[in-house]
Amino acid sequence: MSRKPFLEGLRDGVPIGLGYFAVSFSLGIVARNAGLTPIQGFIASFFNLASAGEYALFTSMQAVASFLEIAIITLVVNARYLLMSCALAQRFDPATPMIHRFLVGFGITDEIFGITIARPGTIQPVYNYGAILIAATLWSLGTSLGIIAGNFLPARVVSALSVALYGMFLAIIIPPARKNLVIAIAVCVSFLCSYICGILPFVKDLSSGTRTIILTVVIASIVALVKPIEEGPSTGSGTPTDQVAPSRASGTPEDAGTDGGTL
User: Fold this and answer.
1) What's the rounded Cα separation, in Å, for the pair 172 and 54?
2) What are the residues whose beta carbons fall under 8 Å from the beta carbon of 93, sequence distance 6 or more?
3) Cα–Cα distance between 84 and 105 in angstroms, integer?
4) What's the CA gap between 21 and 13, in Å, rounded?
5) What are phi and psi of 123, to 5 degrees?
6) pLDDT at residue 235 greater than cutoff 60
7) At residue 233, does pLDDT exceed 90?
8) By CB atoms within 10 Å of each CB, which of 35, 41, 227, 236 scores lowest?
9) DSSP secondary structure string for all residues of 122-142
């Protein structure tokens, strides 16, 4: 009974993992600039599983940020996974052991959350294990290969590959901004505030990680208070149904690797 959902998880995790591999390769270039070895990059990616979170991690390491600052910025950037885990917690069978709940929560990304929440009935942990096995392995392997490539490629090529990561972030913000005016305004305000904080006296002396933490918390809090997201219709199990995109329901995420991420 456990073999079928595990194989289904492996199947659904393949397209997600392929998308993750392409994105994490660019992250590997950033990790290489931060001084990480391929093995260190693999471990960092495997235990983080978040594109935006890892970018914040690697750039903070490159800027020689403190451990506390790195921990806080990683927590803030990855905070949405706490909400996803809470949503999935309502779908577990009450008899599911706590260890399985923790392991499923560990592997939650935007895309894996999408394919999990789209499955009918209660959550089968073995399904998530299959999807996580493929997705997390390819994500971590991509980071390691990106570090290896960055060590022998010419400096100009490495610089060009680093730009690809900014394309990933544009892919994260443009689609939702086109559909929602509030998000578009929040993105523009974020750009403006980031620029202003970079030139203001005293504020510009703060590290980039600290400025990112402050802007993320302040802007997100203001938008949440001024324009909260309206609750949509729910299924009988209390799980929102209007948040699952058709592509995710079919197990083929159209934005794989954009966690934004990110993953």
Assistant:
1) 15
2) 122, 123
3) 9
4) 12
5) -75, 135
6) no
7) no
8) 236
9) S--HHHHHHHHHHHHHHHHHH
